[in-house]
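Complex record, two chains
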Amino acid sequence: MILLERINKKYSKGVTAIDGINLQISGGSIVAIIGANGSGKSTLLKIIAGQVKPSQGKVSTFGCNTIQPHSSLKNKTTYISQEKNLDPEMTGMELLQYFSALYGLSGKFARQNIMSLIDNFSMKTFVHRKVSGYSGGQKQRLHIAVGVIHNPELLLLDEPGSALDPEGKALIWNFICRSQQQGSTTIIVDHDLESIRQHCTRVILLDQGHIIADDTPAAIIKKYSKPLLQFTTQYCLATMQPLVEFCHKQWPDSHLSFNNTLTTLKFSDISEKDRPTIMLKLLQFFYNNHIVVTECFWHQPGLAAAYFQLTGKKADKPPQNQNKHQKRTKGRRH
Amino acid sequence: MINKHIATFYAAFIRTWLKTLRRPVALTFSLFQPLMWMLFFGFLFHRYTVENMPPGLEYLDFLVPGICAMTVLFGASQSGIELIRDIQSKFLTRVTATPAAKSMILGGKITADVSRLLIQSFIVLVLGLALGTKLNFSFLSLAQMIVNLTLFGIAFCSLSCLIALKAKSQENMATFVHIVNMPILFTSTALVPNKQMPEWLAHIAHYNPLSLVVDNIRSSLVFGKPVCFGYDLMLLTGLTGGLLVLSVWAFRTFYLD
């Protein structure tokens, strides 16, 4: 459905945003493009949308050239930018009606479609007010609703979750999933890695204009995020030399770190079937040394950990799904 | 297909009117400005004798058609400002991403602007009557006024939109408005008859489109001599058509900019 061949994009100041990307995206999928700021995500999305002309390469969507899109292609696709380009002097309803007319929708169908969007994005309470009086989240909901008014087959969304509260984000993701069930394809640029892990069928990780990972979220997590064995004890074990020596002897490539009563043993690679044995050995060690363990569990870090692993960047904050009070401590190498 | 074009045209027309009505200050000022001109110029040059005027007619009678056309000129030259706002807020990028015919979007907008300017011109005419202006109303004179002002309005709205689409900034647009409006007004027969101008200025006034419009309206509405729809109208139609085509071209190619 979408085909990108040897795409390059250089901006006038010599900055290379996209460097030789080849990509094929099939219909009915939800694809996330992730990466650091300036990695080329938005540029790639704009190139697919036909909003930015590539310096080199060929882009086709539904078999059509996107550089000078035909009206049939415009009817099938939508690009929802980061900027909320709405007219502040109009009401939400007037904008929905205006764009409905521009997409050639009329009569009862147009009215029903507008009502359905108002319902889907929970806009009933503010849709008759002028946009200038909307909050950031309300503007964002309307911005997306206007963009999908023609029920496009391809949704290109650039950070749709920005400025949205959790309810708003859930509405957007519900809409994306419903669209997928009806056969639509979504390509989304977003930083909410947990939502991406839950909803997307494919993740493309960009770094300095290159694709450095392209797979399902589960496959990326499995491949690039390291499993952790975590256990909570009654007191901090950081000074317990026998534990350090035991771990070093048993699993030389493991990495031990401490955060108060929580101890984390990180493995570079470990198979599913070895996990119970490792846990059993460790519990045996604690039993022999009269250490009371209140909790012991395996934790597979999410997409964020894989992201940091792949990009070589370090997190200022701990990855999601972890205790927010936990800090990365300088662990000893065994 | 035709229904889609009509719907697009109507949507753009309604949007322009909505935005006009939601700016009452700008709307009032655009009406107040020509009224001020009429009052100040009318009374300032009250004793000014216009040559070859039929008996009983005064400078204010001569002036009213000029102020009507000036209302259209000043209002039409502001037409592109709305496009600048749409360009700067990137709303226009969103509009051009739809499959709607751009000629219909621009057509709807220009039609709304011209209809507003025609209403304003009629209000000026009514205010002129209230000040004691003597006008010859007939179906033909009114038809001639509407046709001339409509064509002139379309021409200058198109020019303003063309400049807006190319200039893309409020500052450049303001420069255009000031550079174009005043010379066009003062080198035309809107305020002074051709025969009472210096010879060099009279030559310029002869080729000024504002003179063309004002002379036609004045001839029918003040002097009671309707001009047949001939050479003048062809010139005006040609100018209007040319500027309209150029503005549609600018709008269609805006996407690639």
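Note: The radius of gyration of chain A is 24 Å.
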